[in-house]
Amino acid sequence: MSEPEAKQQRRFVFERDRHQYLVCRGLIRYTLSRYAPVAPADWQFSYNNYGRPEVLRGLCDLPLRFNLSHTRGMGVLAITLSQDIGVDVEDTNRGDVGIHIADRYFSPREVADLRALPASQQPRTFFDYWTLKESYIKGRGMGLSLPLDKFSFELRHQPPSIDIEPELNDPPTDWQFRQFNPNDRHLVALAVRAKELPLRIEFREAFGC
Ligand SMILES: CC(C)(COP(=O)(O)OP(=O)(O)OC[C@H]1O[C@@H](n2cnc3c(N)ncnc32)[C@H](O)[C@@H]1OP(=O)(O)O)[C@@H](O)C(=O)NCCC(=O)NCCS
């Protein structure tokens, strides 16, 4: 890890979180090194105003982009060339979320669709919306400065599609979304700004942590 990363790691109170932070730095550095002739310890990163890390320009010839997400029991790293990319993984077993979060953060249409579902289907659909919404704001790289209620996902068809209010100034057809269930507990959503480009996705399981 770089010195700023080591400093960030020391800020975590719990050993579990320090360990996950370390594992994720390894995941980023070793995975990037599979794609370009840069040693894992030599990767350097820049950060935008919202904290999104990017490979430092000029470090390698390929325009590698990446996005990381982690939750209890899983870290997911998405890598692409050039395109904006965002990924989110959530632990669907966590019990501290639910319709009250949707009321607060989701768009009115998403809340109405969620509330219209039988109670047994609500938890899974809640996580569908949550991970997709997170993947989009992470793809934009602007964190929560992007209002979560100003865009809506349509889940009736696969892959899911997005409606974005004009004030966000982002054409919805620019984006493609995919969802994955790596196991029966975790749900992953991926957002790629890839208009009309066929998406070819390769999966690799890195290591247990
Ligand atoms: C910070 C944020 C970008 C992601 O937070 P998160 O969901 O807690 O965390 P994730 O594990 O998915 O992603 C964290 C990683 O994203 C990356 N990241 C940081 N800032 C980012 C940004 N502005 N854009 C994209 N990626 C970012 C980093 O690699 C970070 O890893 P690190 O914390 O180990 O350094 C932001 O979207 C956020 O705060 N989200 C919470 C929103 C919320 O409350 N949603 C509720 C209902 S939708």
Instruction: List unreliable stretches of 5+ residues.
Output: none
Strand order of the largest sheet: 5-9-8
Biggest beta sheet summary: 3 strands, antiparallel
Q: Nearest-angstrom radius of gyration?
A: 18 Å
Could you give the order of the helices and strands?
HHEEEEEHHHEEEE
Strand content: 15-25%
- Helix tally equals 5
Bound ligands, named by name, code or SMILES: coenzyme A
Class of secondary structure makeup: alpha+beta
Give the helix level as a range of percent: 25-40%
Average pLDDT across residues? 94
Number of strands: 9
The gross shape turns out to be: globular
Could you describe the 3D structure shown?
- By secondary structure, the chain is of the alpha+beta class.
- The protein has helices spanning 3-11, 15-35, 99-105, 108-115, 122-140, and strands at 45-47, 53-55, 64-71, 74-81, 85-91, 151-154, 161-164, 175-180, 186-193.
- A three-stranded antiparallel beta sheet has the order 5-9-8, with helices on one face. A two-stranded antiparallel sheet has the order 1-2.
- The two termini are 17 Å apart.
- Bound molecules: coenzyme A.
- Residues 21, 24, 50-53, 67-70, 88, 101, 105, 130, 133-134, 137-138, 141, 143-144, 148 line the site of coenzyme A (COA).
Describe, in short, the structure shown:
With 209 residues, the protein is α+β, with helices and mostly antiparallel strands.
